[in-house]
Design a protein that fits this description.
Largest sheet: 6 strands, mixed
Strand order of the largest sheet: 11-13-15-19-18-17
Structural class: mainly beta
Strand content: 35-45%
InterPro entries: Haemolys_ca-bd (IPR010566), Hemolysn_Ca-bd (IPR001343), Serralysin-like_metalloprot_C (IPR011049)
Shape: flat
Keywords: Calcium
Distance between the termini: 101 Å
Protein name: Haemolysin-type calcium binding-related domain-containing protein
GO molecular function: calcium ion binding
Helix content: under 10%
Number of helices: 5
Radius of gyration: 37 Å
Number of strands: 57
């Protein structure tokens, strides 16, 4: 279908068709809102009339909208959803009156090439080449291995790029700009860097080069002479944003307080205390400086730095939690050297980055991760409200998550681990169990509100504090074989067995206890509990007590009827043995005859039939015509030996 609005302020809506949209010079505003099948064969064409040439066509974008202008005042064609991630909206080509045809890729290339004015250029999720052509430009990469061009005299360029992984995007300089001619400094935001080339007005701002994610900025810089700098080498050139004040200490004990501006602190060794009072501060520490305490709080967009001197490498650092459990202590392997970062586990406290002499960096998240990795000894690990991975590496470890999407690692032979975690709204906290630990060999019980897990290895135990409460503990267990347990599963884990031999204990609440077969022992530990038993389950022993007014139930599954049930007194004459006619099936109810409120209060069958505890006991006080030994309970019993030579106790 050919659609021609003849000018004005028109909107075309099209759905799944081979449409042609006509636009002539002077038509004014046209909006195209078109949908097509994803991967379909429909072709939607924008056809320009006489006078519109490739040279006069200007292509820009606004979010995922493509905008085309022909140089005539008031003329603009807006193509909605052109950059949609679904790839089924917009147009498939542009036709010019001289026969030129532009496909989608060519349109995107035109959009990524600016003018000498102020442009906002958007890339796609693929590998794009973006050239603003000078002016005051913003280039947004939108993922992919993009190339950003910059020539001498281009003026201001801001690059915003996030690839979701280690950056591979390139900033490519034109002729005349060399590695020796550029200057690199921090931006006012603290997380970006600014590059100047010595030409008045030329400045490139690369956003978030110091971000915690490590996925933003560019991966390298290429020069016209073939020289290449990696991101780390570029950062190493950083002269730092010129501080508004510099504070120097002495070799003794110094206490220095900043003003809230961007400042540099260098205590020169001794036992020093720095209070930054916000700002993009830099705290200098060299080998042999001894003790330094940094007390810094900062605002969003600021990025205080701990600058470590020559000879200190990341591999030399040891990170532990401070006595306050909110700060971190860093040592560099030199006797007496220690840096305390107060409240580092809190947002906007401590420092955002550690920078080494070679230009390499550690983000705040990476620094905290060093503290949440333990040793084979007893470790206490404290996290922040962010997402962290805790791996105590065995021993007798304590891990406090403090909220966030935390993961706690436990492998066979790790010994003891205590997890103290608070669940924030929407957070997922994971207990990651290593190879060899399966659902079948996990045993569980509650110690008060704490869930205790064992894996069958002597000495291995995981204690999850307050797991009984929904806003604490772990809400997902992941096994190496891919199996998982939810928080709801964990609540019932102590009362759900396996096909092997289990010992299950309730908590005092009303619970369903199901041994799942094997040779099981269960204890409801008070409460209106239900003990499940199905045909073929094998041996079950119920050792249970309950309070006045409670009625624990033995729930017998399909196929077991009251007529099938055989009841006998056990060898101690205090309990009952029930059989269902299936070989190997026995239910032993301890002490039900000797003590009130012991065992179960009733038995229910799948067909709805019920028997009270008294009904069960009565079955053992009625004999046969042979010689019987009948045993009563502590209640009032009626005995009928039915003849023979009977003994009644």
């Amino acid at each position: 279908m050919i659609l021609d609005g003849k000018g004005g302020n028109d909107t075309y809506h099209s759905y799944y068709a081979n449409d042609t949209f006509v636009f002539n010079s002077g038509y004014g505003a046209l909006e195209i809102n078109n949908e097509n099948y994803s991967g379909g064969t429909f072709a939607s064409v924008l056809r320009f009339g006489p006078g519109v040439t490739l040279d006069s066509l200007r292509v820009t974008s606004d979010g995922n909208v493509l905008v085309l202008r022909d140089g005539v005042d008031g003329d603009a064609v807006t193509v909605d959803h052109f950059f949609s991630e679904f790839g089924w909206a917009g147009i498939t080509s542009v036709e010019l009156n001289d026969g030129t045809v532009l496909n989608v890729s060519q349109l995107i290339q035109l959009e990524e090439t600016g003018s000498t004015g102020a442009d906002t250029l958007y890339g796609t999720s693929g590998a794009d080449t973006i050239d603003g052509r000078g002016g005051n430009d913003l280039a947004i990469g939108n993922g992919g291995a993009d190339t950003f061009f910059y020539n001498a005299g281009y003026g201001a360029l801001e690059i915003s790029s996030d690839e979701g992984s280690t950056p591979t995007s390139v900033l490519r300089f034109g002729e005349g700009i060399t590695a020796s001619s550029i200057t690199v400094r921090n931006s006012n935001s603290g997380t970006a860097i600014q590059i100047t080339d010595g030409i008045d007005g030329d400045v490139i701002t690369i956003d978030n080069m110091y971000s915690d994610s490590g996925t933003k900025g560019v991966g390298s810089v290429e020069f016209f002479d073939g020289t290449t700098l990696t991101a780390q080498q570029l950062i190493a050139l950083n002269a730092g944003r010129a501080p508004e004040a510099t504070y120097y200490g002495t070799t003794g004990a110094d206490s220095i307080t900043g003003s809230g501006e961007d400042e540099l602190f260098d205590g020169k060794g001794g036992t020093d205390y720095f209070k930054g009072n916000a700002g993009n501060d830099t705290f200098v520490f060299n080998q042999g400086y001894r003790a330094l305490e940094v007390d810094e709080n900062w605002y969003s967009g600021q990025a205080p730095v701990l600058q470590l001197g020559a000879g200190i490498e990341a591999s030399m650092l040891k990170v532990s939690v401070a006595n306050s459990h909110s700060g971190l202590v860093i040592t560099d392997g030199v006797a007496g050297d220690q840096i305390t970062l107060d409240n580092m586990l809190y947002d906007y406290q401590g420092v955002s980055t550690i920078r080494f002499a070679d230009g390499s960096t550690l983000s705040k998240a990476q620094i905290i991760a060093m503290e949440t990795t333990g040793t084979s000894g007893a470790d206490s690990m404290y996290g922040s409200t962010a997402a962290e991975l805790f791996d105590g590496k065995g021993g007798a470890d304590y891990a406090k998550g403090s909220g966030g999407n935390d993961t706690f690692v436990f492998n066979e032979g790790y010994g003891q681990l205590e997890i103290d975690e608070t669940l924030n709204d929407g957070a997922t906290t994971v207990l990651q169990l290593g190879a060899g630990i399966t659902r079948e060999n996990i045993k569980a019980y509650f110690d008060g509100a704490t869930l205790v897990l064992t894996d069958g290895i002597s000495g291995d135990q995981i204690r999850i504090d307050n797991e009984k409460y929904s806003n604490n503990g772990i809400n997902l267990v992941q096994f190496a074989d891919g199996a998982t347990l939810t928080q709801a599963d964990l609540q019932t884990l102590p009362t759900t067995g396996s096909a092997s031999n289990d010992s299950l204990t309730g908590t005092g609440d009303s619970e369903v206890i199901d041994g799942k077969g094997g040779n099981d022992t269960v204890n409801g530990n008070m409460g209106n509990d239900t003990f499940v038993y199905n045909q073929g389950y094998g041996a079950l022993e119920i050792n249970n007590n309950y309070w006045y007014g409670q009625n624990p139930v033995l729930q017998l599954g399909a196929g077991i009827t009251a007529a099938d049930l055989q009841v006998a007194t056990d060898a101690s004459h205090t309990g009952l043995i029930l059989t269902d006619g299936v070989a190997g099936d026995t239910i032993h109810i301890d002490n039900i005859k000797s003590t009130e409120r012991t065992g179960v209060g009733s038995v229910t069958f799948a067909d709805g039939t019920t028997m009270s505890a008294a009904d069960l006991i009565a079955l053992t006080t009625v004999g046969t015509t042979g010689n019987d030994a009948l045993y009563g309970s502590s209640s009032n019993d009626m005995f009928d030996g039915k003849g023979g030579d009977d003994t009644i106790t």
